[in-house]
Amino acid sequence: LRDQVHYMASPGNHSSAPVSEFLLICFPNYQSWQHWLSLPLSLLFLLAMGANATLLVTIRLEASLHQPMYYLLSLLSLLDMVLCLTVIPKVLAIFWFDLRAISFFACFLQMFIMNSFLTMESCTFMVMAYDRYVAICHPLRYPSIITDQFVARAAIFVVARNGLFSLPVPVLSSRLRYCAEKVIQNCICTNLSVSKLSCDDITFNRLYQFVAGWTLLGSDLVLVVLSYSFILKAVLRLRAEGAATKALSTCGSHLILILFFSTVLLVLVITNLARRRIPPDVPILLNILHHLIPPALNPIVYGVRTKEVKQGIQKLLSRF
């Protein structure tokens, strides 16, 4: 992407040389309490990385967990870990060591990973909702529908669809002319935070991200809600004692987590649109937390609450 950043000198430019790096300014209005904020962020980061790593190792070592449902859970954990590692270490480096500089290439790479992996996570939620739909609504057909081949094809679809649709976002942003301004009023290289520093018109850039983002995330959310609607309908017909309660408890927690994931994205959009009425630090903090809270909660809600995973973790811990 670095090679795609072209600079064309013109009379209206403020500088005759292209900007080679950006400076990330976290919470411009609250610089003094950044060190205090780093403590809870560090704890959440350690929780997210530890929980997802434990889940991945447990599923890898426990033969009874070598099933499609747990392979999907492994995919979700991998996506969570990559998202955390892409964003949080740099944020903590800014808080602790004042390392605000980020190169063009690193900035646009971070932008690509954030855009693509967030939509990959949304798509994985959709596939997992379909998995639960088949398991509860068509239990006899489950082994023939949800196979290892299904998971492999689903994983390829998740990566290919979201990677291809997200790639134009950093490419379009990297092709803009950056004249003199290089201070990003954010902790991370979001498309809007970076592209608004450009001397060029960014209307198409903003429009593409809006359309692509809401097409991908919106379609995933609709299919998730549809799947859980069918699940709810089927669960309410269960007559075995405690079966409906157990199914509702499991699927309910899944749905709440998915809605939380989607709601935070919606709040981010609203706060960006209403930036003049909302302090700029609010969407910055929400953006950071969105890369921390779901990764910390996903392995607990999807994994540890599952009896088989809990037993697998106990076996793993007993080895040490």
Arithmetic mean pLDDT: 84
Biggest pleated sheet: 3 strands, mixed
Summarize the helix and strand pattern as letters: EHHEHHHHEHHHHHH
- Helical run tally: 12
Main β-sheet, spatial strand arrangement: 2-1-3
* Total number of strands: 3
Strand residues, percent: under 5%
- CATH fold naming: Rhopdopsin 7-helix transmembrane proteins
What class would the helix/strand composition place it in? mainly alpha
**Straight-line distance between termini:** 45 Å
- Radius of gyration equals 22 Å
CATH superfamily: Rhodopsin 7-helix transmembrane proteins
Tally of distinct domains: 1
**Could you estimate the helical fraction of the residues in percent?**
over 70%
Give me the oligomer status: single chain
CATH architecture descriptor name = Up-down Bundle
